Amino acid sequence: MKKRLLALIATVATALAAMVASSACAIFFYQPEEPKCLREE
Q1: How confident is the model at residue 26, as a pLDDT?
Q2: Which of 8, 10, 21, 41 has the smallest number of Cβ neighbours within 10 A?
Q3: According to the model, what pLDDT value does residue 32 have?
Q4: Helices (H), 1-41
Q5: What percent of the chain stands above pLDDT 90?
Q6: How many domains, the chain?
Q7: Taking 80 as the threshold, does the pLDDT of residue 9 lie above it?
Q8: 7: exposed, middle or buried (C-beta count within 10 Å: 0-12, 13-18, 19+)?
Q9: CA 28 → CA 22, 25, 33, 37, 39, distances in Å?
Q10: How many CA atoms lie within 13 A of 38 on its CB side?
Q11: Where is the signal peptide (predicted)?
Q12: Which residues form the domain of 9?
């Protein structure tokens, strides 16, 4: 019974990690336009 509970916890933790990682990727690819004062010309 204890082994089954640990397997369930591991499955839930893996699913949670996958959801957090996929939402972080969407935010990571958003790049706002660089302000003119920061550009090297």
Answers
A1: 61
A2: 41
A3: 78
A4: 2-28
A5: 37
A6: 1
A7: yes
A8: exposed
A9: 10, 5, 14, 23, 21
A10: 4
A11: 1-26
A12: 2-30
DSSP type of residue 35: P
Structure tokens at 36: 């003119």
**Two tokens at 9?**
């916890």
2: its two tokens: 């204890």
- Residue 21 lies inside a defined structural domain of this protein: yes
Phi then psi for 39, rounded to 5 degrees? -75, 140
**The pTM of the whole model exceeds 0.90:** no
Residue 24 structure tokens: 């972080």
Residue 36 lies in a domain: no
**Mean pLDDT in residue range 2-17:** 95
User: Would 8 be classed as within a structural domain?
Assistant: yes
Looking up tokens 């996958």 gives 18
